[in-house]
């Protein structure tokens, strides 16, 4: 995916109406059907929308030291954020536990010898997407020149992250609903197979499935998948009581 795919979102600030641009961006975010797709779209749109932004990444920060980069515009960002999540702390992310935004005017002067300065990422603007007691999701934009991100960039970034957060919530709920429907259908198939093989009613078949799940310490969904797969395989054997 490249920035050129977003033809209906003009690059800020040339001839823009911010509300229109954000509306177009929100539309593209909500068109993505999975959380991963939403995140990949968000980093590309951030480069188009936030004044001065050249690159962007999204990472999740766990309490303690665990960090994972979820989406990035290029390998420079992925490498820098992965290194910041591994051998050294990111100079801004820990601030976002208590503040919605943090800026670094010049990593070469303020954070020399870090992954950011070593990668040539001089200006940094980090924005909080999600936060709870255990983890925090961060959108960060970068530029190779120092002192790029001003108050206007911060304002646009904060407005944009609100749209990203809403779209991400929607995509997550959609994915969870889809998975729940798949699980329900799978358990229904397994129950039907047990009814036929064991000559019992639906309640008895489901109870048998639950007991087997508890006995084998296997999730109900995974056990149902095993039964369905065994039924569909040549020479599949009936499940034991």
UniProtKB/TrEMBL annotation:
GO terms for molecular function: kinase activity; RNA binding. Keywords: Kinase, Transcription, Transcription regulation, Transferase. Residues 167-228 form the ANTAR domain. SMART domains: ANTAR, GAF. Signal peptide: none annotated. It comes from the Bacteria. Coiled coil: none annotated. SUPFAM superfamilies: CheY-like (SSF52172), GAF domain-like (SSF55781). It holds the Pfam family ANTAR. InterPro entries: ANTAR (IPR005561), CheY-like_superfamily (IPR011006), GAF (IPR003018), GAF-like_dom_sf (IPR029016), GAF_ANTAR (IPR012074), WH-like_DNA-bd_sf (IPR036388). This is Transcription antitermination regulator.
